[in-house]
């Protein structure tokens, strides 16, 4: 017989069990939280790496643009031999961009002409030197574009770590007549990077394309030019094609493990990485885990003591209650009731009553506090997001504007008052520039590309640009595109404080609008033809029957009446098609679905094909499902779709023996009906448009068959109302297959 434990032991075991699972769950949760903190630390390190890489890229790019701009500014002075003007230009750059240690302008042979400053840092005067043997000069002569040299220590009076930015000076014929060089102080860049990384435990390392150190915590770049090609980290980064990444490394010198996040600066072919000792990431969390474990152990000991104390008190209370029950029971048996004892249970009930009320009140207050806390957190979060967004908006206003211009679905070009192209977005370049880079695009290139691409004369284009405002409709030349494309070019003035600073060109694709206009014009002709023909027939037949001077035979009268009936049916069908397309357009197409037998529906639809089309026709029904298979759909609407497909298959068929194959199949999700023919087929240019309203492959008045071009649009609308799809597979000269997909899942009406 199982030994029964005391109530005290049961309570102690219950307390300990609850405590054990609580500690386990709390420990698991804390470990999970700590692991999330490690991941968050890695993410912050990756973000810092990306931020520093972007900063370096923007820093070099800004100074590169300064040199490029200066090459344009000193061109006239260089051609005129005005060294004083060149000297003033270089002095202005030095004042505004102190990051340049020195600047000079050289001639086409590589000899320097003007230095600034004129004295080296050691006080020695600069002299005109020949730099034609330098790497950057040779690269400049070859490419005639801005060159950024590898990192080197300054020569001739300065020990700064430099990189040369060299931009060519070209004459109007595009020939090299000189160059502008700026020696950029990379030690200053390193100090900026160190300042932005201050307070972080990680070290920042930057190397150039030849693996020379630009920034490194262990390298004095002011004295040493160190190459780290043999570094394990550098070799790992070189092997990876990814622009950015991260990994753990076990280093020998210093002997420690580091976690690095890197990013390649593609525009400069430089690399930056942030290295943080693994201990800096994990030790804090390990200490936290130890602290948590000690805290949990202490909590367990305290809870054991508390449980013993509480169980003792509860046991005393229960013992008193048992004694009261025993005494009360003995009093009943002996017919001796003790009034004082009877008050005991009432007090216990009252105690529980007020205790429960207190618990309810505490829970209600806790819920209210939780709601208030949740509301407060929401407001704080909303305010934080608002402030962050405003901060980002202020910092990235220029970047956002540039991103908007590049993301436009229209082409945009800005031309200054000197008729120079200041800016073009990606869309304009793709349409007009013909692969020319935006920094090489000129207004004459734009003229040439417009004349080459579009059906327009040079005189007409010149007249448009001579106007202050206006727009010009353009059409691609046939040899430029398989499809007919239309554009409209708008020209507008760009004003700043009521002063015209240039002109803007906006290129917009209006092919869709042109197609709609053509479709509307064709629709008028199409509709008049479709309604005029049966109405003319009806009028002629009625006028014939109304002639009193002729007595017509009964058979002839019957034939005329049957013709009138067919023409009225044709008009009624046209009206019904218009009503159906209106319902589809307004979203009120209604289908009344029920379980219908698929094979019977297909066979009855075949019987409803117009008799005039059934000559020399072979029908074949392939049922891949069991006999009597049913699916959930609108019987009349599905029959309407099938009859339309059968009719098209026969009308657009030039074969001596016309064939229509109907296949019934199903899978887990859909019931499929395939209608195949051996007709003329549909080309790829038309197959994507045949479901458009009023669209017909042949829209001339002499086409092979009547119709408004609404049939397939109605078919697609009916399939959409069923939640299904219609698919087309076709090949010119071999026929077409239309596949109807009806979902097997029964949807609620």
From TrEMBL:
InterPro entries named in the record: dCache_1, HATPase_C_sf, HATPase_dom, His_kinase_dom, HisK_dim/P_dom, HisK_dim/P_sf, Sensor-like_sf, Sensor_HK_Regulatory
Gene Ontology cellular-component terms listed: plasma membrane
Transmembrane segments: 12-32, 289-310
Keyword check for Membrane: yes
Catalytic reaction list: ATP + protein L-histidine = ADP + protein N-phospho-L-histidine
Localization in the cell: Cell membrane
Molecular functions per Gene Ontology: ATP binding; phosphorelay sensor kinase activity
EC number(s) stated in the UniProt entry for this protein: 2.7.13.3
PROSITE patterns according to UniProt: HIS_KIN
Membrane topology term: Multi-pass membrane protein
Domain Histidine kinase: 526-746
Keyword vocabulary terms for this entry: ATP-binding, Cell membrane, Kinase, Membrane, Nucleotide-binding, Phosphoprotein, Transferase, Transmembrane, Transmembrane helix, Two-component regulatory system
The protein's name: histidine kinase
Organism name: Ureibacillus manganicus DSM 26584
């Amino acid at each position: 017989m199982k030994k029964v434990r005391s109530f005290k032991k049961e309570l102690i075991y219950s307390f300990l069990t609850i405590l054990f699972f609580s500690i386990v769950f709390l420990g698991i949760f804390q470990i999970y939280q700590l692991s999330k903190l490690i991941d968050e630390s890695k993410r912050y390190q990756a973000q810092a790496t990306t931020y520093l890489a972007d900063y370096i890229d923007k820093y070099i790019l800004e100074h590169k643009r300064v040199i490029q701009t200066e090459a344009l500014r000193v061109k006239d002075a260089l051609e005129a031999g005005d060294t004083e003007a060149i000297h003033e230009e270089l002095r202005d750059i030095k004042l505004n961009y102190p990051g340049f240690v020195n600047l000079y302008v050289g001639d086409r042979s590589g000899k320097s002409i003007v230095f600034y400053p004129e004295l080296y840092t050691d006080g020695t005067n600069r002299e005109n030197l020949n730099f034609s043997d330098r790497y950057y000069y040779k690269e400049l002569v070859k490419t005639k574009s801005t060159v950024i040299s590898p990192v080197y220590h300054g020569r001739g009076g300065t020990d700064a770590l430099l990189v040369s930015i060299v931009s060519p000076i070209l004459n109007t014929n595009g020939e090299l007549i000189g160059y502008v060089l700026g020696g950029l102080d990379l030690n200053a860049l390193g100090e900026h990077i160190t300042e932005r990384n201050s307070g972080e435990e990680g070290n920042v390392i930057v190397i150039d394309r030849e693996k020379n150190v630009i920034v490194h915590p262990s390298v004095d770049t002011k004295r040493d030019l160190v190459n780290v090609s043999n570094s394990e980290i550098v070799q790992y980064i070189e092997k990876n094609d990814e622009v950015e990444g991260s990994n753990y490394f076990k280093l020998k010198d210093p002997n420690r493990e580091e976690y690095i996040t890197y990013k390649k600066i593609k525009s400069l072919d430089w690399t930056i990485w942030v290295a943080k000792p693994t201990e800096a990431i994990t030790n804090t969390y390990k200490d936290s885990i130890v602290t948590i474990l000690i805290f949990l152990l202490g909590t367990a000991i305290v809870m054991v003591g508390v449980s013993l104390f509480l169980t003792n008190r509860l046991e005393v209370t229960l013992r008193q209650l048992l004694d009261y029950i025993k005494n009360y029971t003995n009093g009943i048996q002996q017919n001796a009731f003790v009034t004082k004892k009877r008050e005991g249970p009432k007090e216990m009930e009252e105690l529980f009553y007020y205790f429960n009320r207190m618990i309810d009140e505490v829970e209600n207050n806790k819920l209210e506090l939780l709601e208030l806390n949740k509301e407060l957190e929401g407001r704080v979060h909303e305010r934080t997001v608002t402030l962050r967004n405003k901060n980002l908006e202020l910092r990235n206003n220029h970047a956002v504007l540039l991103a908007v211009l590049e993301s436009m679905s229209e082409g945009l070009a800005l031309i200054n008052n000197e008729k120079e192209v200041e800016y073009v977005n990606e869309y304009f370049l793709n349409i007009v520039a013909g692969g020319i880079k935006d920094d090489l695009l000129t207004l004459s290139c734009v003229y040439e590309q417009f004349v080459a691409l579009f059906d327009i004369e040079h005189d007409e284009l010149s007249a448009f640009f001579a106007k202050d405002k206006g727009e010009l409709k353009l059409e691609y030349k046939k040899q430029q595109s398989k499809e007919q494309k239309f554009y409209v070019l708008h020209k507008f003035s760009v004003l700043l404080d009521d002063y015209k600073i240039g002109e803007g060109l906006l290129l917009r694709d209006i092919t869709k609008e042109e197609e709609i206009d053509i479709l509307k014009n064709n629709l008028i002709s199409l509709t008049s033809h479709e309604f005029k023909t049966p109405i003319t027939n009806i009028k002629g037949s009625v006028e014939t029957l109304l002639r009193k001077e002729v007595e017509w035979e009964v058979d002839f009268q019957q034939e005329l009446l049957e013709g009138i009936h067919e023409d009225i049916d044709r008009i009624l069908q046209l009206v019904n098609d218009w009503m159906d397309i209106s319902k589809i357009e307004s979203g009120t197409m209604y289908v009344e679905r029920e379980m219908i037998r698929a094979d019977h529906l297909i066979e009855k639809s075949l019987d409803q094909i117009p008799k005039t089309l059934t000559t020399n026709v072979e029908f074949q029904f392939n049922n891949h499902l069991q006999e009597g298979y049913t699916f959930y759909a609108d019987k009349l609407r599905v029959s309407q779709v099938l009859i339309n497909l059968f009719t098209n298959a026969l009308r657009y068929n030039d074969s001596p023996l016309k064939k229509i194959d109907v296949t019934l199949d199903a899978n887990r999700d859909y019931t499929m009906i395939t209608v195949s023919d051996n007709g003329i087929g549909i080309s790829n240019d038309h197959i994507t448009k045949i479901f458009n309203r009023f669209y017909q492959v042949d829209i001339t008045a002499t086409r092979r068959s009547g119709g408004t071009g609404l049939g397939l649009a109605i078919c697609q609308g009916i399939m959409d109302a069923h939640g299904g799809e219609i698919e087309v597979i076709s090949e010119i000269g071999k026929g077409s297959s239309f596949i109807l997909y009806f979902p097997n899942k029964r949807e609620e009406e």
